[in-house]
Write a structure and sequence with these properties.
Chain lengths: 257, 315, 307
């Protein structure tokens, strides 16, 4: 197997006495969608926050492209190519969709201490932004203020922002959160188009989506990884079934592809 | 053409100022009033760049103006009156003060930032009052206006009018250019959603600090002109109430764009001029108007047409 | 600089600190509970002094003036809350700054209109005019000691209110996490009105106490307001304990700095230079202290807010 894009080694985090991340180790290989699932309160968002740099782990290491980034700040990690989408939509409301994506492209390329040229007229940035918007199907809405978009469109824009940074790894924190059935279908379509082109760590509640998209799945329960494997392996795993006992959302039949 | 339409109010104000001396504002009192308005507008535009652009609500901006003005005073006392020396010193002094105080203030945000800029502004004020060599509390009268290349061009009222107009136009253009640039886009992004900007790899601190320093330098240039316009500088000019008035100009005009600060500064000076001739205690009326403006004009003067249109459309 | 003078200056610093605390206490709670920045808090202090001057002239007694000025200050505070402040809670800090700045303009010129621009004098209460000897021929006025005592007693009362009563518990909870308190079904607006009125009265109380030793004049609250801001920033927004310690610190630094700095500098400079540089440095000292503290603790000495 090629060198993993992201490797977690023995990550731990406690809030007070409560262990929210307990000895978590996992890899994301190039071009792989690696999903992290788990019941509510399993510590999924805390894990993402540690990877993106919002929270510092108490112990363990985070390796990104072979480099130890455990102690790097949020914005430094982003500069290395670690792009994050937020569970709660995080866009810049008074920017247009295009300017949101262009800002992201600007982050991925060159310095931003440039004072003379109007950024809105930089063809290179606008082109990169449009490519990202096209990838998520928002090209037609490029000049709409982000704050005026529908919820589903904001989720798409969130993805476009992540893509426009030319990331090496996408951290997607519940990209489907709050989306209606139609929006969900469209977003799953978009995500499956990204597969193989980006390494993706996906945290998601929607089990249909996870089993349809993921190459590998890791199951987090009370901060601890209880299993990692292909969707087929996870579906058969007794421990996973026990953890989800009483919850119907783990699809027992093979998900339609 | 959309840009032109958007900038119409600002261009209109600047154009009217260029024509003003021949439109019945050529007398000395009118030119004095206009010079005051233009200089305050310079400071207001630089503050609007901070508040509306970078989301930094500074309540100590008058101190930057004061650094520029006191640079003129101190050099005047040392008999240095050449603009090519005095102006750079004024700008550097104000920008330097902004750098030192900003380095601490920008680490904080929200209410903290407001209070800390206020406190640093007041520090500058008290320092000015204790400069007994330069008049202390009573202020300092300049021996002469600054010269430009040995010529006394700043002493001629009409020339001074156009120097102020040029400086104001330049300030407006610079702030506009900065806000549109990559740098300005990051500033606006940090204001709109700081966490998002950080997740994209932008650390807000250096961008905000630089914006603070630039705005300080521009206000310092305004202070240079202010000292020359009044030929007198006193600590009262940089007291925190003046910072409050600058903020009032910015919000009176509307923080949606830089032209709001232009409208606000002229609205403010006009209001002050009219009211202060009517009533000794005109500040009472001024205060009432300020409160009403905050409560009922959220978009400022610049947002008034849209607000009226909305009301008409809605009711 | 003799030890006696140091003692006197220390007591004066303590007294300034106490006055600052009375102003800062209301301010820090209003900030903490409602995230509301109220520049007009300083004019509440000024109003207290003017009310004391007015009632003292009417009744001829300081104590009557005190008894009447306190409820009057409370009333003015509540009227302002209803007329102006409550319309600003949901607005951003910029709007709050400007509207409360408008209130300052109105009240500063309002008292000038009603009472004239000349400073007013308030006679000291007759039973406190003397002083206690702290050294041969040097008396420290009883009245200043009474300010210190009264202020400390008020601080104690406040501590009891905030730490030991139900309403105090709500205020503390509100300062830590206001949405949580609202979610518990507490009427946060009413709570704020109580906090606000009480804060206005405390500032008014400081004004009444300061009236006999300072000149009562328009704008007298503005400078103290900014020192009170420094106190809150140093102490940590929303923390009464932080405000108390920071107020004493600021009072002492301000007073001792002004008297000691020129003397200290005389070791390095000649007398006139020392006086000028010393005065400039002394006026910057408080702000430098603030900057130094913030450089290490951006949220102040006793941060309250959760998260």
């Amino acid at each position: 197997m090629a060198e993993p894009v992201l490797a977690l080694r023995g990550l731990r985090k406690r809030f007070g006495g409560l262990a929210v991340t307990e000895d978590v180790s996992l890899d994301v290989a190039p071009g792989e969608i690696h999903a992290v699932i788990g019941p509510n309160g399993a510590g999924k968002t805390t894990l993402i926050n540690q990877i993106s740099g919002v929270l510092a782990p108490d112990a363990g290491r985070i390796l990104f492209l072979g480099r130890d980034i455990t102690r790097l700040k949020l914005h430094r990690r982003a500069r290395l190519g670690l792009a994050r989408s937020f569970q709660i939509t995080s866009i810049i409301p008074d920017f247009t969709a295009l300017e949101n994506a262009a800002l992201a492209a600007q982050a991925g390329e060159g310095t931003s201490f440039r004072f003379f040229r109007p950024a809105g007229k930089e063809a290179g940035l606008n082109r990169a932004a449009m490519v990202a918007l096209e990838q998520v199907g928002l090209a037609r809405r490029a000049n709409t203020p982000a704050g005026a978009m529908s919820h589903g469109e904001k989720r798409q824009l969130e993805l476009a922002i992540a893509l426009a940074t030319q990331p090496r790894l996408l951290l997607l924190d519940e990209p489907l959160a709050g989306a209606g059935p139609e929006e969900t279908e469209r977003l799953i379509g978009i995500l499956s188009l990204l597969r193989r082109r980006y390494a993706i760590l996906l945290v998601e509640h929607d089990m249909q989506a996870v089993f349809a998209l993921a190459d590998r799945i890791s199951v987090l329960v009370y901060g601890r990884l209880i299993a990692t494997g292909t969707p087929a392996v996870i579906r058969q795993n007794a421990e996973v079934r026990a953890a989800y006992l009483g919850e119907d959302d783990i699809p027992l039949a093979a998900a339609p592809c | 053409m959309r840009t032109l339409a958007k900038e119409a109010p600002a261009l209109l104000v600047l154009g009217a100022l260029a024509a003003a001396p021949w439109l019945g504002f050529g007398e000395s009192w009118a030119l004095t009033l206009l010079a005051r308005a233009m200089i305050l507008a310079m400071a207001a535009v630089s503050l609007s760049f901070l508040v509306g652009g970078a989301g930094l609500v500074s309540l100590g901006h008058a101190a930057m103006l004061g650094f520029g003005a006191y640079a003129v005073v101190i050099l005047d006392d040392a008999q240095i009156v050449e603009a090519w020396v005095v102006l750079p010193v004024a700008i550097t002094a104000a920008a330097g003060f902004a750098l030192v105080t900003g380095a601490v203030a920008i680490r904080t945000s929200g209410v903290h930032f407001i209070m800390i800029t206020l406190a640093f502004g007041q520090m500058a004020y008290f320092t000015a009052t204790s400069l007994s060599g330069y008049g202390g509390d009573d202020g300092y009268t300049l021996y002469a206006r600054t010269e430009l290349g040995g010529s006394r061009i700043l002493s001629d009222r009409l020339s001074f009018h156009f120097i102020c107009l040029g400086a104001l136009t330049l300030t407006w253009l610079v702030c506009r250019m900065l806000l549109a640039s990559r740098f300005g886009r990051v500033l606006r992004a940090v204001r709109g959603n700081p966490l998002r900007a950080q997740a994209l790899g932008f650390s807000p601190y250096p961008y905000r600090l630089l914006a603070y320093v630039i705005a300080g330098g521009l206000a310092g240039a305004a202070g240079f002109l202010f000292a020359n316009a009044t030929e007198f500088v006193a600590p009262a000019y940089i007291a925190w109430q003046r910072s409050g008035e600058l903020l009032f100009m910015v919000i009176l005009g509307g923080i949606g764009g830089l032209h709001g600060a232009l409208l606000g500064a002229f609205g403010f000076v006009l209001l002050e001029e009219v009211l202060s001739h009517q009533w000794e205690h005109w500040r009472i009326a001024f205060g009432v108007l300020l409160i009403l403006a905050v409560l009922y004009l959220p978009g400022g003067l610049a947002g008034l047409p849209a607000q009226l249109a909305r009301r008409r459309g809605g009711g | 600089m003799s030890l006696t003078l140091l003692l006197v200056q220390g007591l004066n610093g303590l007294q300034l600190g106490i006055l600052l605390f009375l102003i800062a206490a209301g301010l820090t709670l209003v900030f903490g509970v409602m995230d509301f920045i109220n520049l007009a808090h300083g004019v509440q202090y000024m109003l207290g002094a003017y009310l004391a001057a007015y009632f003292a002239a009417q009744t001829g007694s300081f104590w009557w003036a005190l008894a009447l000025a306190l409820p009057a200050a409370l009333l003015v505070g509540l009227v302002l809350e209803v007329l102006v402040f409550r319309h600003l809670y949901d607005r951003d800090h910029l709007a709050q700054v400007l509207a409360t700045f408008g209130v300052i303009l109105i009240l500063n010129d309002g008292v000038k209109w009603l009472f004239g621009a000349a400073p007013l004098q308030v006679p000291m209460p007759a039973d406190l005019t003397g002083g206690i000897p702290i050294m041969d021929g040097l008396l420290y006025p009883h009245y200043r000691l009474a300010i210190i005592g009264g202020g400390l007693a008020t601080a104690g009362l406040l501590w009891w209110l905030v730490e030991r009563t139900r309403i105090g518990m709500l205020i503390r909870a509100g300062a830590t996490n206001a949405p949580m308190v609202a979610a518990l079904g507490i009427d946060i607006r009413r709570l704020f009105m109580v906090v606000f009125g009480f804060g206005a009265m405390l500032a008014g109380f400081a004004g009444v106490m300061a009236a006999p030793i300072l000149s009562v004049e328009p704008g007298m609250g503005d400078n103290l307001l900014i020192l009170a801001f420094v106190v809150i920033v140093i102490g940590g927004i929303g923390s009464v304990r932080g405000a108390f310690l920071a107020a004493l610190l600021v009072g002492l630094v301000e007073t001792l700095g002004r008297s000691l700095m020129p003397d200290l500098l005389r070791l390095l400079l000649d007398a006139s230079q020392a006086r000028q540089v010393g005065a400039a440095l002394a006026s910057m000292l408080v702000y430098i202290a603030m900057a130094a503290i913030l450089a290490f603790r951006p949220a102040g000495l006793f941060p309250v807010r959760a998260g």
